[in-house]
Design a protein that fits this description.
With 419 residues, the chain is α/β, with parallel strands linked by helices. It folds into three domains: 60 residues, Nucleic acid-binding proteins (OB fold (Dihydrolipoamide Acetyltransferase, E2P), Beta Barrel); 129 residues, OB fold (Dihydrolipoamide Acetyltransferase, E2P), CATH 2.40.50; 109 residues, Rossmann fold (3-Layer(aba) Sandwich). Helix content is 21%, strand content 32%.
Length: 419
């Protein structure tokens, strides 16, 4: 089949119409003329599995990463950054029915502060696009930055010296599974976390990473193909640090933290300028990313988070920054007395808000609600219900994820006054 890519769908795949068929072409740009040689079906969608670009679009550019087109990490690196932002603006407009301004990422390479690299018999790198069973072997990741090259070189030297077994994907066999690299972009701190199956790690492993501030060994004793496990041992510092706009955060290998430190500063500032009143509730508070920052700005902050370890880290971060912010363990659906706060911030996972929480917000919510979302679809769903009691007063997009179709959104809502 041959055709021309007319536009990208919300997942960043090019749409080619051939008769009544709608074929999705990865790594394509509007205006590309393509020949599609083989397709596959996934969730009722037809996706081009093997294709050739016959005539490139005039808006296509040369991607910086040599692994682009094979690695599944980036889908949009062949588009100029202005075109990426325009794509995301159009996407938000279609889903939220709003023309949303997008704040660009201050950096679009070397911005990512975490990568999870699989160590397998197929290669050391990232999953090949469209597969879970294959790996693109890489030397480094330009989206993460130069330190990834140093770490992966050291890892390969360790493997060569010790002849340790590598992960056989799908068989749950092999000792080495993943290496997770995290870096404080504003501090330069680096942590290397080796994830293995059960077994013995050679004692000299830390010696291969003398430049790392923190080295962890985690063991995954389950059949699940995941890049985390139980902490077996660590060397060096227990935590690395990141500093966002003057606020310091401790980062553990298993902590969730915004993956783009540079754009995270813009996110914190955007949320802070929307907060009103003195008393703030930070829901889904994680390690205190918003809460600690706002406490440094003078707000009285309480945080609620389901993960006990994240709560522990949030309270440590509050203590580290010398602020009076209190974080406790709790479930979103069980939160009461929401109207006692001047502003409530919600930053839920991709699934969005729990229906019970939405109901409580509508019935007895605060004067000001700030919704931070990484999933515009579930955001749109929740906003349609919240608008029973709230009016949207501002909406901003932030590009936390350059070269991908993903986008963060901050929505400011004010409670309606009923006569």
């Amino acid at each position: 089949m041959e055709g021309t890519v007319r536009e990208l769908n919300e997942d960043g795949l090019g749409i080619v119409k051939v008769g009544r068929r709608r074929v999705l072409v990865p790594f394509s740009a509007p205006g590309d003329r393509v020949r599609i040689e083989r397709t596959r079906k996934k969730k009722r969608k037809i996706i081009a599995e093997r294709f050739e670009i016959l005539e490139p679009s005039p808006i296509r550019k040369e991607p910086r990463c040599e692994y682009f087109g094979r690695c599944g990490g980036c889908l949009l690196q062949h588009l100029d950054y202005r075109d990426q932002l325009e794509f995301k603006r159009s996407k938000l407009n279609a889903i939220l029915n709003e023309d949303v301004e997008i704040i660009p990422s201050p950096k679009i390479f070397g911005h990512r502060n975490r990568i999870d690299v699989v160590i397998s018999t197929k290669g050391i790198g990232f999953r090949r696009y469209g597969t879970w069973w294959d790996v693109v072997d890489i030397e480094w990741c330009p989206v993460f930055g130069p330190s990834s090259k140093k770490v992966l070189k050291s890892l390969r030297e360790f493997i060569e010296d010790h002849k340790v077994s590598l992960y056989e994907i799908g068989k749950n066999e092999g000792f080495l599974r993943y290496i997770v690299i995290r870096e404080g972009k504003f501090t330069g701190d680096l942590v290397v976390n080796l994830v293995t199956g059960p077994g013995e790690l050679p004692e000299d492993f830390p010696g291969y990473f003398p430049y790392a501030d923190s080295i962890y060994w985690s063991v995954n004793r389950t059949p699940s193909d995941v890049s985390y496990g139980e902490i077996e041992r660590f060397w060096g510092r227990e935590f690395i640090r990141e500093k966002l706009d003057g606020t310091i955060y401790l980062i553990h290998p298993n902590s969730f933290f915004q993956t783009n430190s540079y754009a995270a500063v813009e996110l914190l500032r955007e949320v802070a300028k929307r907060v009103e009143g003195g008393r703030v509730l930070d829901l889904y508070s994680g390690v205190g990313t918003f809460g600690v920052y706002l406490a440094r700005e003078g707000f009285s902050v309480e945080g609620i988070e389901l993960n006990p370890f994240a709560v522990e880290m949030a309270n440590r971060n509050a203590e580290l920054n010398g602020v009076d912010a209190k974080f406790k363990v709790g479930a979103d659906r069980d939160v009461e007395n929401l109207g006692a706060y001047d502003t409530v911030i919600v930053d839920p996972p991709r699934a969005g808000l729990h229906p019970k929480l939405v109901k409580r917000l509508v019935q007895k919510g605060p004067e000001k609600l700030i919704y931070v979302s990484c999933n515009p679809k579930t955001l749109a769903r929740d906003l349609s219900e919240l608008e029973e009691a709230y009016t949207i007063t501002h909406m901003t997009g932030l590009d936390m994820f350059p070269h991908t179709p993903h986008v963060e959104v901050v929505v400011e809502l004010r409670r309606q006054r009923f006569n």
